[in-house]
DNA sequence: CACGATGTCTGCATCGTTGCAGAGCGGTTA
DNA sequence: TAACCGCTCTGCAACGATGCAGACATCGTG
């Protein structure tokens, strides 16, 4: 059966539509007698407001959309939890979508009639979208970007300092006395990528310690997944001069590396120390537990939502801001050991 | 600036609103001359349709909502990916929300003016909601339930056979020659829970093998998280007669158990064999890798979306169906060893 | 030339809600 | 008694789109 509308309730209660609306929303003063009649009719008809109509009238939906490449990458799942919480604090429901890390899916978001129009704002963690594509989109929903990707100043944008994070991770390995430090996760073929910033940080740390940069120790990976980490670690150990430490560009690569090393009979951290970035919970329980650099996901989420809400609600849209979130080094078993 | 509407485009192109709408949607035949004029105006004004208005008129949004307790529980993240894919195949965008496993958040979904009205349908994996609460909700969006929770016949519902899954897992441990088999994850205080079905399967397997049931070996846990698995495993090993195998009610508990055992100096699988349920990718890369019972997430997602779409689009709503998805035993290192 | 058939295009009503302006009414004040 | 106030309540218009019925022009046919 059709849902009851304000009109149905009004005719049943013998009042005007407007009065029913007032009762439902608690707007204007309504006499007790009428209110009672209306409320009876409301429950009898099991009325519930049509939010689409309300949204149309009010020009907003109260919903934000968070788009990440892959939800089953724990970092994004943990981030999503934080963003959902931050959204709630600002009175917005956050719905999450993923693009499967598929460029065409990412571009779909920018389409004329993307479903995103239904949302008041968009928090996007892009993987392959270029700044230009984003600027030229046929879609004016307010956007805040996550991650180090594209910062040409057109959009507000929240991220940790990836160069510093990578430097900290590498420096930590160096502080253990390791000298042949490998890196897994470079992506030299993309522009503006997180990966390249992390490579820069890695090299800075080497340089600062006076260690040589050996390109053979830097393994690119197409994506940041466990399996690729395992493969890369195995390949590294097969080198004539294998490394004594590995910096992985994220924790998932590191989890794979731990596994690959173990299968190769390499002891961690005794033979090879391993560190990642992301601070996912999984690394706390692995064997050995994983040292990592933890981005402050709470802070990232809060800053992103605050920026977005400012864009949405602000009379004068604030200038696009580049916001830095904090990160912390978290040493665990995978880098245990005296200097 | 205000977004351009059909009216704006129409007045600029000197045609009727209706004609612009026809051009945008490719509905009626439009002469080339007019079409060109309209399309010029469309691009000049950067028109994009207001989906809220369209949805209001058409009475549908083309979006489904998937609600899970916690996105950072890998099983749910992996399931979400499958549901999103299945939704796309049917022409729906799937947006994901989580309740933080918070009963009040779950109940919020059923509220009069829950944001869910914006969606054409709801796929819900409830944690604490009772069947009655669901039936009495003030919200008529079509629903399909996931997981073994509440099957009083009011709703369509997709799940694996949890009793059989637990039986298979336990039987696998027994087939290794283990005789003191513990269980982590019972939840005796809730009604109709997945956990209780798994306990039933566990006991069936013991009984079938003629093994005694020892309540001391069954550890309840409030939730299915790594830390609780670690704690429970540690406690089990402190018993006067510790177990030689542990069946964990999900993989996350098992990951915690592996870690707890390792910290206690227990070797897996030599001293204690471990198995979980869920088939999360994390278990493939842990040390040791985790034996598990894998629910067919693709199938669960496909069946759930198909049921929901049938509810939404079907002229005659099909009767609520109970659908069983397949599961498979996947032995890995954590249960390696001769019988 | 009259007629109907076809092909384009338009205006009105409508989806369900809320904003706005004001109607009706009882009571207070001068 | 007139003027005014405040409290309730109402009707109309509007949000931006689409469904529908029909207007109008053009064309072919008898």
From TrEMBL, chains A, B:
HTH lacI-type domain: residues covered: 4-58
Key word Membrane present: no
A molecular function GO annotation: DNA binding
Alphabetical UniProt keywords: DNA-binding, Transcription, Transcription regulation
PROSITE patterns in the cross-refs: HTH_LACI_1, HTH_LACI_2
Highest taxon above the source species: Bacteria
InterPro entries reported for this sequence: HTH_LacI (IPR000843), LacI/GalR-like_sensor (IPR046335), Lambda_DNA-bd_dom_sf (IPR010982), Peripla_BP_I (IPR028082)
S-adenosyl-L-methionine keyword on record: no
Signal sequence interval, chain numbering: none
Classification via CDD domains: HTH_LacI, PBP1_LacI_sugar_binding-like
PANTHER family the record matches: LACI-RELATED TRANSCRIPTIONAL REPRESSOR (PTHR30146), LACTOSE OPERON REPRESSOR (PTHR30146:SF153)
Name of this protein: LacI family DNA-binding transcriptional regulator
């Amino acid at each position: 059966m059709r849902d009851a509308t304000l009109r149905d309730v009004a005719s049943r209660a013998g009042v005007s539509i407007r009065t029913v609306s007032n009762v439902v929303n608690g707007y204007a003063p309504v006499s007790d007698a009428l209110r009672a009649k209306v409320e009876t009719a409301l429950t009898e008809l099991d009325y519930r407001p049509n939010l689409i109509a309300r949204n149309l009238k009010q020009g907003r939906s109260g919903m934000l959309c968070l788009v990440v490449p892959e939800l089953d990458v724990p970092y994004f799942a943990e981030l999503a939890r934080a963003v959902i919480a931050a959204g709630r604090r600002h009175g917005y429901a956050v719905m999450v979508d993923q693009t499967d890390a598929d460029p065409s899916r990412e571009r779909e978001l920018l389409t004329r009639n993307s479903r995103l129009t239904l949302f008041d704002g968009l928090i996007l963690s892009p993987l392959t979208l270029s700044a230009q594509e984003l600027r030229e989109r046929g879609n004016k929903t307010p956007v805040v970007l996550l991650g180090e990707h594209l910062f040409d100043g057109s959009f507000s944008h929240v991220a940790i300092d990836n160069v510093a994070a990578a430097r900290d991770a590498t420096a930590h390995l160096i502080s253990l006395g390791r000298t042949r430090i490998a890196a897994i996760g470079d992506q030299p073929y993309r522009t503006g990528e997180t990966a390249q910033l992390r490579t820069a940080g890695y090299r800075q740390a080497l340089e600062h310690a006076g260690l040589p940069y050996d390109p053979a120790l830097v393994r690119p990976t197409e994506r940041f997944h466990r399996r690729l980490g395992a493969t890369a670690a195995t390949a590294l150990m097969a080198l004539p001069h294998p490394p004594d430490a590995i910096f992985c560009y994220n924790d998932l690569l590191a989890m794979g590396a731990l596994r690959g090393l173990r299968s190769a009979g390499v002891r961690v951290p005794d033979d090879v120390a391993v560190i990642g970035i992301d601070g996912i919970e999984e690394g706390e329980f692995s064997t050995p537990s994983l040292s990592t650099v933890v981005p402050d996901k709470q802070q990232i989420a809060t800053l992103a939502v605050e920026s977005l809400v400012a864009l949405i609600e602000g009379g004068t849209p604030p200038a696009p801001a580049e916001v830095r979130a904090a990160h912390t080094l978290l040493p665990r078993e995978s880098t245990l050991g005296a200097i």
